[in-house]
């Protein structure tokens, strides 16, 4: 393809604080990136990093890539060392990667102070290294480190580095905003000045932007609009400091807003799945509010928005969410109007159209509960139960009637802390009492409630308490504060559901959420 989508998640992205990819992780990420259709996957720095050396070795037999080529990253030869004798250069060849991306100093201040060599020697290092790999049958890209800072300080020298690489056979020379301090207008101006100075087309250049000004995506787009056809990104914007240009935002903007064919057909719709898959491998929670691929990227909250969406979803979605594998969501909050409630209910399989009285009751009830601190934004299961409870003939089956419950927390002399819960419920015409211990009061209560119901509802054995969050509500104070509890539940045949409870007493709030969780599960059998 004309455009080169170059991903550096496994090299530059891995420099993010908190990320440490194993070799197995790197192989898995590479497969996902290839599915997404990127053209180049920079796998790391063989020879400098043992893990990266191992990655390239295993990739030869364990990776079958459909769209991408693997790229080995490394530096130009050392000053005063013949290129054929430099072990780092040899390690890049030994990786057997078909593409090599070399990094070189392009700011004369870094050449003289960091490399401790001369400008002429640095140019020789660039020429020798690029020519050596080209002679050995490799495609070569050259990253000009600190390009924009260097170009502003001494444009003639920085341009000479670009010229040296191109003359030696580099396929693209990449302008790196290493410090991340640029804004789009300066990117465009630098490209215009450089191409005029060297008499080359911008298509011979590449762009690599850090996000220190929150402009990495915009800077990358500006470069492409200026004629650059090679752009480097990382999945989810991972990288050092604030990160790099986000692959999914850049590709989404280029393909959907500018109409540029940067990915193979059928790949863009995998964006959300690939983004979240890589986040899971990195052990970082997906960013809910990430453009295009975040769970909230097409979530609408205000009643005015929802009214328009009811008429035509295009009115408030900048693109069809499905083109990036996402979906539109309606959030139910105190801001919700009747349209929001109707749309959200329909999303959950309950059609309130033609039921104005029920719709009014649900809307009124939601607003009342939200005023008390309840929130249904992240608790679709509780919201569905509320809606169905207002529909004659569609009310959810209540698995039990509560007589009482009791929770005891005992701190023993040996330091052990044990929680015990007893529940007394009526199931049909039977009175059931169950007692259970747990690692906390909520866990004990959950276990006791399941025990009391398991004989009547065997499906409960497949349910698992997967998440539990407690939040002190604003305006509340200290240990007497009103708390909101969110409970996440999973079943073997279901991706999971979330319920909510609110009360001054955290155990009672948890009880409400637990009861909703079991009630929802019982009413949604596999």
What would you say about this model in short?
By secondary structure, the protein is an alpha/beta fold. About 40% of the residues lie in helices and about 20% in strands.
Question: What do you see in this structure?
Answer:
The chain has 526 residues and is an alpha/beta fold. 39% of the residues lie in helices and 21% in strands. α1 packs across α2 (50-62) and α12 (303-311) packs across α13 (338-347). 45% of the residues are buried.
Largest sheet: 8 strands, parallel, barrel
Mean pLDDT: 90
Spatial sequence of strands, sheet with the most strands: 1-2-3-4-5-6-7-8
Distance between the termini: 45 Å
Overall geometry = elongated
The overall strand count is 16
| Share in helix | 25-40%
Structural class call reads alpha/beta
> Number of helical runs?
17
What low-confidence regions span 5 or more consecutive residues with pLDDT below 50? Answer: none
Radius of gyration: 29 Å
Beta percentage is: 15-25%
Can you tag this structure with a few keywords?
alpha/beta, 526 residues, three-stranded antiparallel beta sheet, single chain, 16 strands, eight-stranded parallel β-barrel
């Amino acid at each position: 393809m004309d455009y080169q989508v170059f991903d550096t998640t496994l090299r530059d992205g891995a420099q993010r604080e908190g990320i440490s990819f194993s070799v197995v992780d790197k192989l898995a990420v590479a497969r996902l990136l290839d599915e997404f259709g990127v053209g180049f996957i920079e796998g790391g720095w063989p020879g400098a990093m043992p893990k990266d050396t191992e990655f390239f070795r295993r990739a030869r037999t364990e990776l079958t890539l459909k769209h991408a080529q693997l790229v080995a990253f490394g530096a130009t030869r050392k000053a005063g060392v013949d290129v054929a004798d430099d072990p780092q250069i040899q390690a890049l060849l030994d990786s057997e990667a078909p593409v090599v991306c070399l990094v070189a100093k392009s700011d004369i201040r870094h050449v003289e102070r960091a490399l401790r060599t001369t400008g002429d020697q640095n140019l020789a290092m660039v020429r020798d290294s690029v020519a050596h790999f080209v002679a050995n049958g490799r495609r070569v890209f050259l990253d000009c480190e600190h390009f924009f800072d260097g170009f502003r300080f001494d444009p003639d020298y920085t341009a000479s580095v670009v010229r040296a690489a191109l003359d030696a056979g580099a396929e693209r020379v990449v302008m790196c905003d290493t410090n991340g301090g640029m804004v789009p207008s300066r990117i465009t101006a630098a490209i215009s000045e450089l191409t005029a100075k060297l008499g080359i087309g911008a298509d011979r250049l590449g762009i690599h932007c850090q996000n220190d000004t929150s402009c990495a995506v915009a800077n990358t787009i500006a470069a492409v609009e200026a004629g650059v056809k090679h752009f480097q990104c990382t999945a989810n914007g991972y990288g050092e400091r604030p990160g790099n240009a986000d692959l999914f935002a850049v590709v989404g903007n280029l393909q959907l807003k500018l109409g540029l064919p940067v990915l193979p057909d059928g790949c863009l719709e995998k964006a959300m799945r690939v983004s979240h898959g890589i986040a899971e491998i990195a052990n970082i929670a997906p960013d809910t509010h990430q453009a295009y691929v975040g769970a909230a990227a097409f979530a609408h909250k205000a009643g005015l928005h929802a009214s328009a969406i009811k008429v035509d979803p295009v009115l408030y979605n900048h693109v069809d969410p499905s083109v990036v594998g996402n979906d539109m969501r309606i959030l139910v909050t105190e801001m919700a109007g009747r349209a929001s409630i109707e749309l959200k209910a329909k999303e959950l399989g309950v059609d309130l159209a033609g039921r104005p009285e029920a719709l009014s009751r649900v809307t009124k009830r939601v607003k009342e509960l939200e005023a008390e601190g309840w929130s249904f934004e992240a608790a679709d299961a509780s919201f569905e139960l509320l809606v169905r409870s207002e529909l004659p003939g569609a009310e959810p089956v209540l698995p039990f009637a509560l007589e009482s419950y009791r929770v005891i927390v005992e701190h023993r002399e040996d330091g052990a802390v044990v929680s015990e819960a007893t529940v007394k419920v009526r199931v049909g015409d039977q009175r059931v009492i169950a007692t259970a211990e747990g690692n906390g009061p909520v866990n004990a209560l959950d276990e006791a409630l399941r025990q009391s119901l398991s004989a009547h509802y065997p499906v409960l054995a497949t349910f698992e308490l997967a998440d539990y969050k407690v939040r002190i509500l604003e305006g509340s104070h200290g240990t007497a504060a009103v708390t909101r509890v969110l409970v996440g539940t999973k079943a073997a045949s279901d991706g999971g559901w979330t319920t909510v409870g609110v009360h001054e007493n955290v155990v009672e709030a948890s009880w409400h959420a637990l009861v909703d969780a079991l009630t929802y599960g019982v009413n949604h059998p596999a």
